[in-house]
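Page 37, continued from 36.
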């Protein structure tokens, strides 16, 4: 198991809604923050990219007749809400954080400036990257692969609701088997739907391993980091 000094944690917005159908569940946000705190206390530098599906889904807004770019911008604003919620939870447990937004909104958080983000990370702060890439048509997975590359992360940890990558959707197909490790090309050619092709390609070009694990259970981030948990690794 390689040791990862600096990681980017990517979570969907849905993770933060807990058992609810919509929005933020404070207890779940706190639980996720505790997991991040544990990783930081174990000596890992952590930055975070979160989605917004618990608040607004750009793609489904567009599917219902909205202009895609407008829908995507609404999604980016949803990410900022999630980022502030996570920042609040982390700082309540005395983990220092900085929220940096790809779309400048300086009354609320810092604008994303790569060199400044690097400084924050070197100082052990948890940097939460908000507003995706700042562009419509790009997913938060792509934002995660981009920021992980820019921050020279040793791995991109993708927290999902299942404990890795399966041969089929484990919630629909009882014969689905979990894969231990695979290559970026496997993910692309087998259309395994872990992340979109843009995100996978970016991670591949920059040689950033992707670790897919279940973020819904407490303590799994630390376990994926020390290799004792269940997860799937995607590498070259
Ligand atoms: P170091 O100089 O490396 O210690 O970083 P720092 O973030 O502590 O210094 P800075 O003086 O830049 O920031 C102090 C506080 O102001 C931090 O909580 C920042 O998040 C916040 N801050 C800095 N720039 C902005 C901004 O553009 N908008 C908002 N809303 N807050 C900011």
């Amino acid at each position: 198991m390689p040791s990862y000094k600096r990681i980017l944690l990517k979570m969907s917005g849905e993770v933060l809604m807990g058992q609810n159908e919509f929005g933020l569940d404070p207890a779940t946000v706190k639980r996720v923050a505790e997991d991040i705190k544990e990783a930081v206390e174990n000596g890992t530098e952590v930055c975070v990219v979160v989605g917004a599906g618990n608040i607004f889904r750009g793609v489904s807004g567009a599917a219902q007749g909205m202009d895609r770019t407008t829908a995507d911008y609404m999604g980016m604003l949803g990410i900022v809400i999630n980022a502030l919620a996570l920042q609040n939870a982390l700082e309540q447990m005395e983990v220092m954080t900085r929220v940096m937004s790809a779309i400048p909104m300086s009354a609320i958080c810092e604008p994303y400036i790569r060199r400044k983000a690097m400084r924050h990370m070197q100082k052990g702060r948890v940097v939460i990257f908000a507003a995706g890439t700042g562009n419509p048509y790009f997913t938060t997975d792509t934002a995660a692969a981009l920021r992980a590359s820019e921050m020279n992360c040793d791995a991109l940890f993708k927290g999902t609701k299942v404990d890795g990558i399966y041969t089929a959707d484990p919630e629909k197909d009882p014969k689905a088997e979990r894969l231990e490790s695979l290559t970026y090309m496997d993910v692309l050619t087998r259309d395994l739907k872990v992340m979109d092709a843009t995100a996978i390609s970016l991670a591949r070009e920059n040689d950033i391993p992707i670790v897919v694990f279940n973020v819904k259970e407490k303590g799994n981030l630390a376990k994926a980091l020390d290799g004792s948990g269940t997860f799937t690794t995607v590498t070259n």
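The mean pLDDT is 95. Flag for discussion at group meeting. The chain has one domain: 6-235.
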